[in-house]
Structure formats: C-alpha cells, structure tokens
C-alpha cells in the first residue's frame, strides 16, 4: 500500500501504469472524474482500445442536475462547478460510448469517496469536508487476500454500480 497526502501527489505515471496495465476491468468511480481527462493524453483512445480488447471500462459519475451536486457546488464555491466538471466527463464519454466495453452510470452516493479500480489494484480518495478532490489524500491499494481493505472498497463500487442509473438511454 502507498499513501499520498494529496490526490495530485500521486504521480501520473502510477495512474498511467494502472490504466494501461489493467486487462479485465477499469472503474472510475469519482464524482466528476474530470481530472483524469486533463492529466492523461489520448485517454479516450486508450480506453476505447481497452474495451475493444475485452476490458470493461466503467464510469460512475454524479448526476449534474441533482440536489447533491448543487449542494456540493455551494460548498466548493469555485468557478469550475461540479456540474460542469461532470459534463466534461460525459462529453468525453459520449465520443466513445459506442465502443465495446464502455459503460457509464449516475450515482450521487459517492460524493465523499472516490474509488478507481484497475483489476486487482485501486486508488481511493476519501474527500475531506470542503476541500476539492485534488486536496484530499489518496491510498494505493492492492488486493492481497479475501475480505481485506481492497474488497471492502470494491464492494462499495459494486453497490454504486448496481444501484446506479444508466447515463445512456
């Protein structure tokens, strides 16, 4: 396990290795997932290729029109609003939605916790109060056995997915 005091202290090379190294399932369960598109060149092409190679690529995002999102925007009080950041992710996903393996759902149940899974590894960001995501800590976990920390967070992601609402029709 590795720990970073801030999400953006985790090197982009760690993210890139995890994204590119996953072969079964990648899940981005961040409320906006906005930053991922900004920090990783040609991400849409890379994810599309993963889907074509049989990897499931899932995005769980907040609903840009929900009360939860509006309340979070009030807390953050920044010009680049939560709903705008979600819409940037939705726009990027819309361009690859026809690719095999690309899936997306809405959920407002993960506003305070982002979990990004890459086969048997994950990055977890517990959001601290009124701080933005990049200001919150991040943990890099590996699945070492049954019912450990990895499995507890993985169960959370599974529940988000099962209870989420489809983004597309």
Defining traits:
6 helices; single chain; 169 residues; Endonuclease, Chain A; alpha+beta
Any idea what the shape is?
globular
CATH class categorisation: Alpha Beta
| N/C terminus separation | 39 Å
Integer-rounded radius of gyration: 15 Å
Write the H/E string, N to C: EHEHHEHHEEEEHE
Q: How are the strands of the largest sheet arranged?
A: 1-7-6-5-2-3-4-8
Helix percentage range: 25-40%
The CATH architecture designation is 2-Layer Sandwich
Provide structural commentary.
With 169 residues, the protein is an alpha+beta fold. It has one domain (2-166): Endonuclease, Chain A. Helices cover 38% and strands 22% of the residues. The protein contains 6 helices and 8 strands. Strands 1-7-6-5-2-3-4-8 form an 8-stranded mixed beta sheet, sandwiched between helices. The longest helix is centred in the C-terminal third of the chain and has 15 residues, at 149-163. The mean pLDDT is 94.
């Amino acid at each position: 396990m590795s720990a970073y005091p801030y999400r953006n202290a985790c090197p982009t090379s760690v993210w890139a290795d995890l994204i590119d190294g996953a072969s079964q399932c990648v899940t981005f369960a961040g409320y906006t997932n906005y930053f991922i598109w900004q920090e990783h060149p040609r991400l849409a092409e890379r994810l599309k290729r993963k889907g074509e190679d049989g990897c499931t690529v899932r995005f769980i995002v907040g609903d840009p029109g929900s009360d939860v999102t509006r309340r979070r925007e009030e807390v953050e009080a920044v010009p680049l609003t939560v709903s705008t950041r979600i819409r940037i992710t939705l726009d990027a996903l819309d361009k690859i939605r026809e690719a095999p393996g690309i899936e997306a759902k809405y959920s407002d149940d993960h506003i305070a916790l982002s979990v990004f899974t890459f086969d048997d590894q994950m990055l977890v960001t517990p959001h601290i109060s009124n701080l933005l995501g990049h200001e919150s800590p991040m943990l890099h976990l590996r699945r070492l056995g049954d019912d450990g920390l990895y499995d507890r967070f993985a169960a959370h992601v599974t529940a988000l997915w099962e209870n989420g609402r489809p983004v597309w029709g």
